[in-house]
Design the sequence.
C-alpha cells in the first residue's frame, strides 16, 4: 500500500514528522511505500541530518503550508500547492491509498470534501476516536472534533456511521449506541441533544441504548459507539490526554497497558468517517512517536478499507 | 448560621442524605443549626435507626418530592410542598442562611429564579466548580451544568462572575479568565464560542487570557477562571470523576491529596453564582460522605456571603 504523509502539518513539523516517518520504516513491508509530501529541501536536509537514505521514501514537493491558525476553506482555496492540497490530489488520483496529517483539522476536512468527496448519503464526516475501557474493550466516540456545532440529523447519523464502524472495524455484531449527555434521563441536555435522543430511540439502523454520562467513560460495559458533537468530543479526548499526564506525573514508573492506551501518542491519529478515501488526522502536537503511530493507524485503515466499508453500508 | 438541607434530593435520598447530616454535626459550632427539609416520618425513622437524637436538628416537613426526571419548571409549580420548594421558601424568608440539595439541578435553578431571584444584572446564574491543579492552585470552572445551551452574552458574563468569585473567594488579585475551547487559536470553536472570544478579549471587566484546551486542565498555571457552557462543563466535571475512579482502580492504596481533590465526594457541592442567596447543588449520586461535604461547602459559602459579594460587584 502507498501512504501519503503531510510532512508540514502539526506544531512540530516538519522535523518531528520526518522523524516519525523514519521510525515507521521497520513496520513497512516490501509492498508498502511512504510518500512524504512537503518542502523538498527541508525533507532532504532533515533526512541527511538523520543519516537516512531518501530512497526509502518517495518525496512529493509542496511549496506552500496551511498553518494551524489559517481559516480552513480560504487556506485550502488560496494554497493549491500546500502539502494538504497536494496530498488530497494524490489521494483523489489514487496515487496513494491513504493520507494522514497532524495539521489544520478544518483544512483536512475541507480538503476531503473538495477532492475525494463525502460519501453520498453522509451528511457530515466525523472523526472517530477510540476510548479504552478497563475491561479491555474499546468504544468509538464520534465526532471527536470535525464538527463543533452539529445539527440534530448529523448527530443521529453519527449513530449509524458509528454502528457501521464498530461492526466492520471492531467486529462487534450488534453494537450499542449511546448519546453523551449530562444526565441519564431523556429530558436532559440541549434542545439539539434532546431532539437527537427522540430520533435515535426508535431508529432501526442502530441499537440505541440511551444516554451515557462522562463519569461512565473508561468503565466496563460502555457502549460500543458514543455520539456527541465535535466540540464536546474534542474536550473529552483532550481531557483524557490530561488524565494520562496526571498518571505519568503521579506514578512515574507505572507500566500499565491500560494507562498507555490513554496516551494519544500510542494511538497516533483518528480516521475520518464518511469520506470517499482513507484519511487519518493526527493531533496538532504530534511529535516523533505520535507521527509513527499515525502512519501505522493509516495502514490499518487502508487494510480494512474503511471508506469502502462505509460506502457499502450507508 | 442556619443551613437548610433537602433530605429528599439525590439518587440515595433520604437515607444517605440523613447519614451525611449526622456526620456533619461534629463540624458545627453552637451557633450553627442544620434544618432537615423533607418527609418527617422518613427522617425520624432513619434518625431512630441511627440512634441519633432528632433534637440535634430542626425538621421541616415537606410532603412532596421533585424527582430527578421531573421537568424542572413544571415540577416546581405543581409541587409547592416539595422539599426544594419548601427550602427556597425558608431561604427567601431568611429563615435559613444557605440551602443545599443533591436533587434535580434544573428544579434548583428554577426555584432560585422564582423565589430568592437572580441578582439584578445577572443574565443567567451558573454553577461554579473547582478544578484542582498539580501546583496546588484551584481554578473555577463555570458553568458546570446549569445552562446546557449558553448564548454569547451569557458566556461573556460568566467571565465577569468568575472574576468576582476568584477575587472574593479564592483571594486572587487579578484573576486570568480563559475560554474552554477546542484549539488555542481565536478562530476555533462553535460560532457562539468564537463570538464570546471576540467580546471577552477587550472586556475591561476581566483579564482575558484567550483559549484553554482540555489537555491543559489540572496542570500548573491554568487560568483562575475557566468559562464554558453548562453542557461542556458538566462533561468535564464528570470525566474528572471517571479519572478519580480510574486512579482508585489502578492504585488501590494510593493516598495522595491531589488525587483525593478529584473526588467529588470530598468536594461535596458547587455553589450557584448569581442568585440572591447562598445555594449549593450537590451531585445526584451523593451518598453519606458527599452529603456531609456538601453541607460543609454551604457553610463556607455562607461564611464569605458569596451572594452578597456578587451583588456588590456586578
Sequence:
Amino acid at each position: 500500500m502507498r501512504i501519503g504523509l503531510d510532512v508540514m502539518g502539526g506544531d512540530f513539523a516538519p522535523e518531528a514528522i520526518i522523524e516519525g516517518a523514519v521510525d515507521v520504516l521497520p513496520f513497512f513491508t516490501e509492498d508498502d511505500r511512504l510518500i512524504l509530501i512537503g518542502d523538498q529541501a527541508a525533507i532532504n536536509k532533515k533526512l541527511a541530518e538523520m543519516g537516512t537514505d531518501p530512497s526509502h521514501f518517495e518525496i512529493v514537493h509542496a511549496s506552500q503550508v496551511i498553518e494551524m491558525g489559517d481559516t480552513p476553506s480560504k487556506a485550502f482555496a488560496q494554497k493549491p500547492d500546500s502539502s494538504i492540497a497536494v496530498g488530497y490530489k494524490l489521494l483523489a488520483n489514487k496515487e496513494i491509498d491513504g493520507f494522514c496529517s497532524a495539521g489544520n483539522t478544518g483544512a483536512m476536512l475541507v480538503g476531503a470534501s473538495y477532492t475525494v468527496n463525502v460519501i453520498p448519503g453522509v451528511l457530515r464526516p466525523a472523526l472517530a476516536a477510540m476510548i479504552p475501557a478497563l475491561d479491555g474493550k474499546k468504544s468509538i466516540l464520534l465526532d471527536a472534533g470535525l464538527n463543533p456545532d452539529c445539527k440534530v440529523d448529523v448527530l443521529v447519523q453519527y449513530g449509524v456511521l458509528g454502528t457501521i464502524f464498530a461492526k466492520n472495524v471492531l467486529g462487534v455484531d450488534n453494537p450499542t449506541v449511546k448519546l453523551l449527555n449530562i444526565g441519564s434521563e431523556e429530558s436532559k441536555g440541549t434542545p439539539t441533544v434532546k431532539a437527537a435522543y427522540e430520533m435515535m430511540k426508535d431508529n432501526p439502523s442502530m441499537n440505541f441504548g440511551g444516554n451515557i454520562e462522562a463519569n461512565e467513560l473508561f468503565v466496563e460495559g460502555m457502549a460500543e459507539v458514543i455520539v456527541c458533537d465535535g466540540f464536546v468530543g474534542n474536550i473529552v479526548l483532550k481531557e483524557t490526554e490530561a488524565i494520562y499526564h496526571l498518571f505519568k506525573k503521579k506514578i512515574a514508573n507505572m507500566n500499565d497497558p491500560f494507562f498507555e492506551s490513554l496516551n494519544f501518542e500510542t494511538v497516533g491519529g483518528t480516521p475520518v468517517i464518511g469520506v470517499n478515501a482513507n484519511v487519518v488526522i493526527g493531533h496538532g502536537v504530534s511529535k516523533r512517536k505520535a507521527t509513527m503511530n499515525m502512519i501505522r493507524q493509516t495502514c490499518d485503515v487502508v487494510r480494512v478499507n474503511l471508506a469502502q466499508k462505509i460506502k457499502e453500508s450507508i
Summary: Chain B is about 40% helix and 15% strand. The domain at 1-122+274-314 of chain B is CATH 3.40.718.10 (Isopropylmalate Dehydrogenase). Residues 230-250 of chain B form the longest helix (21 residues).
